[in-house]
Design brief:
Protein name: TPR domain protein, component of TonB system
Number of strands: 0
Keywords: Repeat, TPR repeat
Structural class: mainly alpha
CATH class of the domain at 19-155: Mainly Alpha
Organism: hydrothermal vent metagenome
Strand content: under 5%
InterPro entries: TPR-like_helical_dom_sf, TPR_rpt, Ycf3
Largest sheet: none
Pfam family, one: TPR_16
């Protein structure tokens, strides 16, 4: 009799347990559907909360909830991603990274290569954007850390390299600036998006080197100026100003032949008033001892601050005919 009662009791407990599991799966399914509704409404944060709750129930139930669990994990992965993107758009960078990292981790678990790849790209992009924000705030060390984080996540992050170009400019670290713009150039070879960023970085780098060269000329450091101007030509070889400044530096160093070549190159590229360049060309020809060419160049100085000086050289020094 006792054995019969015990058996009946065990059977009752089993049925009760099965009922609880069935109720739990039903509850998880209802929460999953609520999550789907929030996802459809693009309320990704609320969807994440509901999917996480449903997933917790599924894991507690075990194998009997495996089918539902797979659906929940798939939707939760996608929701983590889009929630991260929402935080990113609102410039909430830390929470964006946290959600995108969850998306990436779960995507790896469930073999969702698409979400894994997109999360990987955006994690780096968010780090770079945070770096840009810190750079604008003049928090250079903190910005550098964020660009480093971006490149650890994605070594081909052109946004991070562009940020490092801007950081180097702010720090007046021209070698680092060139190193990073050159790395961008490598990435640009295989990416049209990177190529657009590279074009901007080249423009910034060229102008920084050009202006630094001009500053060295003002400081009466012509050899140092030539070094910066030579680097500038690597990023823009068809600019009149870089050749004009090079001619000025060469004249200061009495490199007459080089000055003549640079001044003529500048003249071939200039589309506006050329008097200053003709004056420099005249000085170079004069220094080289080519009187006729010097007279011709000085005669073309018709505007600007060097008109009187050019006339003096023609009439009093060279005695041009």
């Amino acid at each position: 009799m006792k054995s019969v009662v015990k058996t009946a009791l065990l059977a009752g407990l089993m049925m009760f347990g099965i009922g609880l599991y069935a109720q739990s799966i039903t509850n998880a399914g209802e929460i999953f559907n609520q999550g789907n509704a929030q996802f459809k409404a693009k309320a990704f944060g609320k969807a994440v909360t509901l999917y996480e709750k449903a997933l917790k129930i599924c894991k507690a139930v075990g194998p009997d909830a495996s089918d539902l669990q797979s659906q929940v994990e798939s939707q939760l992965t996608t929701s983590y991603f889009w929630n991260g993107i929402s935080f990113y758009k609102n410039r909430n960078f830390d929470q964006a990274v946290a959600q995108l990292k969850k998306a990436k981790a779960m995507a790896i678990t469930i073999s969702n290569a698409k979400i894994k790849n997109y999360a990987h790209i955006y994690i780096a992009r968010v780090y770079a954007s945070k770096g840009n924000m810190l750079l604008r705030q003049k928090k250079l060390a903190e910005a550098s850390i964020q660009y480093g984080n971006a490149l650890k996540e994605d070594p081909s992050s052109y946004n991070a390299y562009y940020g490092k170009v801007l950081l180097a400019k702010e720090k007046k670290d021209l070698p680092a600036m060139m190193t990073n713009v050159d790395k961008l150039g490598e990435l640009a070879a295989s990416s049209s998006k990177a190529a657009k960023v590279y074009a901007k970085a080249k423009y910034i780098t060229f102008n920084t080197l050009l202006n630094t060269g001009a500053e060295e000329l003002q400081k009466m450091h012509p050899q140092k100026a030539l070094e910066y101007l030579a680097d500038a030509k690597k990023y823009h070889s068809a600019n009149a100003d870089v050749y004009y400044y090079t001619a000025l530096a060469d004249v200061s160093l009495k490199k007459w032949g080089a000055a003549i070549a640079s001044a003529n190159k500048a003249l071939s590229l200039q589309t506006t008033e050329k008097s200053d360049t003709y004056f420099t060309l005249g000085q170079a020809y004069q220094g080289k001892g080519e009187k006729t060419a010097a007279c011709s160049a000085f005669k073309k100085v018709v505007k600007g601050p060097n008109v009187a000086a050019a006339k003096y050289q023609r009439t009093q020094v060279l005695k041009c005919k």
